[in-house]
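General statements about sequence and structure are easier to judge against a single worked case. When preparing material for the folding task, we compiled for one chain both its residues and its backbone structure tokens. The amino acid sequence and the backbone structure tokens for this protein are reproduced below:
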Amino acid sequence: MDAFKNAEVERMKTGGNKPWKEFFNEHQSNKLAGRDFDSCTISERYDSEAGEEWKERLTCKVEGTEYVPGATKKTITAKPTTGVTPAGSGRNTPLESVRSPPQRSYSPSQKSRNEAYFASKGDENAARPEGVAPSQGGKYAGFGSSP
């Protein structure tokens, strides 16, 4: 079972699924793009313009501060003095992405660069000789295959 931190419980009480879904569907960026909550993945929801704004607004509401568009707060993370990790649920939740910027937020141009990179790696592998171990410059054929 999950053990939620007090801050996480407060965010769930203050936010909630229904208000989040309504906010997402009514957000101008999603209306312009023709997206709705149900057609998006979790990542697309939370890493979107609407998702980032929702997290900022929710944080302000929980902390009792005024929401100012475009104003981001700097979070100071203390280094743990024991073997315990800093506060957090250990899962990739919306709360985690408020504490630190998302690690993987890909734009369409980043996606195409990634695809081009991996395609070039595939081309390089295809040009390698067969019958030679990959560690010696041969073709990589996947797990469990023999040279």
User: Anything to note?
Assistant: The helical segments are 6-14, 17-26, 28-33, 42-46, 49-63, 94-99, 108-126.
